[in-house]
Structure formats: C-alpha cells, structure tokens
Automatic annotation (TrEMBL):
This is Uncharacterized conserved protein, DUF1330 family. InterPro entries: Dimeric_a/b-barrel (IPR011008), DUF1330 (IPR010753). Gene3D superfamilies: 3.30.70.100. Residues 2-95 form the DUF1330 domain.
C-alpha cells in the first residue's frame, strides 16, 4: 500500500540550516524510491492556522517510508532541518 510522508513547516528559525538540509535531501530522495508530490505549493487553508509550507512524498509502502526516514544518510541531513525550522512530520498509509 502506498504511504505518504507529510512534513508541515510551522516556523523557520535558521534559513541557512534549511538550505543545507534541502541540498543534502535532494539526492537522497532520488535514491529512496520516494516521489515528491508537493513542495511548499499554494494553500487553500480550510481550518486552523496556515503553515509556512507543506511537503508530501509518496513511497511504495509504510516500511519504505520509515526506512528512508531512519536511514543514516537522512538522519545526517535531518539534523539541519531540526536546527532550521519547527516541523510536524508523519507517515500515513494510503487506501487500497
């Protein structure tokens, strides 16, 4: 079943750290089997406060999404995101 990794950016604290994260992330996504579906696109907020941005990546399975997130290469990159911005992130399974 397809799974989706959702990253909701609430507040940027350090733009330089975020740029480092993006530069490290791009090649990793290509290796992961993930497909980027949305990156900070236009929002039509229906409820609640608007986030600064949203990223959505599809993976073939929940296990593939979690393997990407837990991989040593991604964990080295994500440290820069942790320093650069406040996020909410989760993986959600699609419907069959």
């Amino acid at each position: 079943m397809t799974a989706y990794a959702i990253f909701i950016q609430e507040r940027t604290r350090n733009a330089a750290e975020m740029q480092t994260y993006v530069e490290l992330l791009r090649p990793l996504l290509g290796e992961s089997g993930g497909a980027v579906l949305a990156v900070h696109g236009p929002q039509d907020v229906l409820e609640g406060a608007a986030p600064e941005g949203v990223v959505m990546v599809s993976f073939p399975t929940m296990e593939a999404a979690r393997a990407f997130y837990d991989s040593p290469k991604y964990q080295a990159a994500v440290k820069h995101r942790f320093l650069g911005a406040d996020y909410r992130s989760f993986i959600i399974g699609g419907v069959n």
